[in-house]
Design goal:
This protein is of the alpha+beta class and 270 residues long. It has two domains: 130 residues, P-loop containing nucleotide triphosphate hydrolases (Rossmann fold), CATH 3.40.50.300; 70 residues, ACT domain (Alpha-Beta Plaits), CATH 3.30.70.260. The protein has ten helices and eleven strands. A four-stranded antiparallel sheet has the order 9-10-8-11, covered by helices on one side. It has a three-stranded parallel sheet with strand order 3-4-5. Strands 1-2 form a two-stranded antiparallel ribbon. Helix 2 crosses helix 3, helix 4 runs parallel beside helix 5 and helix 7 crosses helix 10. The protein is elongated and about 80 Å long. The two termini are 28 Å apart.
């Protein structure tokens, strides 16, 4: 993050932001970026509006449009009700919003957010995540976070880095699916006539059916693997209904981004 924003010089390689090299055109690059570092560095003796206005001044926003831009950012980040309050009197969640407002000054194409929800309570985390999603509609957002459940909820694309090297670039969904390994669903049914044995012949998209266990109430749990990326749930539900097989539970086998991360890291450490 610090190298992309120009705070630290890179020792090798080249960083290109919106077509500009951070080494050759640092001012051009910095104009494209709004940066919210971890730790919320703020001038706490200023009010919210004073701080955002100050950020507009040091970023040299045109005087003719400065007031309008400040008002828009305060509204956009949900700070209108506290714009006259001193920052030091705000909750940590609101301080995060103020820091984000500062990053938005200058209409940057790219927002870089470093651990934006660290130290927040559950309500504040939900609010900040919603705000990030809204900002993502107008900006490219680069989010650095060790909270992988948060990454999964917010991000469209994930880059996993291990020991300074990129080990994966994909969507959260694809990474989670790769962690599962197979496209499976688990189904619990009541099947006294053992009709499940013939289901594979009726549904061509089924690759394999495996009985996992028979429960005390005589229900049976099966693992059903699909061909390719086919979602079997609707097809299977319809076919089982035709065979008068009662379904007690049906769920898709899934994994979390944490599972995908551990699998990739463990693979890279072998």
């Amino acid at each position: 993050m610090n190298m992309i924003t120009g705070y630290i010089e890179s020792t090798s390689g080249e960083i290109i932001v919106d077509g500009y090299s951070i080494d050759k055109k640092p001012k051009k690059v910095k104009k494209q970026i709004g940066y919210m570092p971890e730790g919320v560095p703020l001038y706490t003796d200023l009010t919210v509006k004073e701080f955002v206005t100050y950020m507009a001044e040091i970023k040299k926003i045109d005087r003719k449009t400065r007031k309008e831009e400040v008002e828009k950012i305060i509204e956009q980040t949900g700070l209108k009700d506290v714009e006259k309050k001193l920052i030091k009197k705000l909750s940590r969640g609101y301080k995060q919003r103020v820091s984000m407002a500062g990053a938005l000054v200058g209409k940057p194409k790219i927002l870089i957010l470093d651990e934006p929800t660290v130290g927040l309570d559950p309500k504040q985390i939900t609010e900040i995540r919603s705000l990030i999603k809204e900002l993502g509609k107008e900006h490219t957002v680069i989010l650095s976070s060790h909270i992988l459940s948060e990454v999964s909820q917010i991000c469209d694309r994930v880059i996993i880095i291990n020991k300074g090297k990129i080990v994966a670039i994909d969507t959260p969904e694809n990474l989670e699916q790769k962690a599962v390994g197979k496209n499976c669903i688990y189904v619990t049914v009541e099947d006294p006539e053992n009709k499940m044995a013939k289901i594979k012949d009726k549904i061509k998209e089924i690759k394999n059916i495996e009985l996992i266990k028979t429960n005390e109430d005589k229900t049976k749990e099966y693992s059903i693997e699909a061909e390719g990326k086919t979602d079997l749930r609707k097809i299977l539900f319809t076919e089982l209904a035709k065979e008068n097989i009662t379904i007690f539970e049906m769920k898709k086998a899934d994994a979390t981004l944490e599972d995908a991360f551990m699998k990739l890291i463990e693979g890279g450490n072998k």
